[in-house]
Amino acid sequence: MTGLLDSEWLKIRTTRTLLWYLLGLVVIVGIAVAGQVANAPDFVLESEEGFIDTLEASTAATFFTLLFGIIGMTGEYRHATITHTFLATPVRDRVVAAKVITYAGAGLLLGLFALLVTFAMALPWLAAKDADPALLDREVGLFLVGVLATAALWGALGSAFGSVMPNQVGAIVVALIWLLIVEHILTGLLPEIAPYTPGGAARGLMRIDGEDVLPMWSAAAVTLGYIVALAGIGARLVIRRDVT
Amino acid sequence: MERGRITGFLGPNGAGKTTTLRVLLGLVEPTGGTATILGRPYRALDEPARRVGAVLEATGYHPTRSGRNHLRVLAAATGAPRERVDEMLALVRLEQWGRRKVKTYSLGMRQRLSLACALLGDPEVLVLDEPANGLDPEGIRWLRDLLRSLSAKGRTILISSHVLAEIAQTVDDVAIIQHGRLLAHAPLAELTTQAAGAVRVRTPTAERLRDLLAGVGVDAMLVAPDRLAVEGTPERVGEIAAANGVVLHELRAEASLEEVFLELTGAGEEG
Question: B165 and B200 share a domain?
Answer without folding.
Answer: no
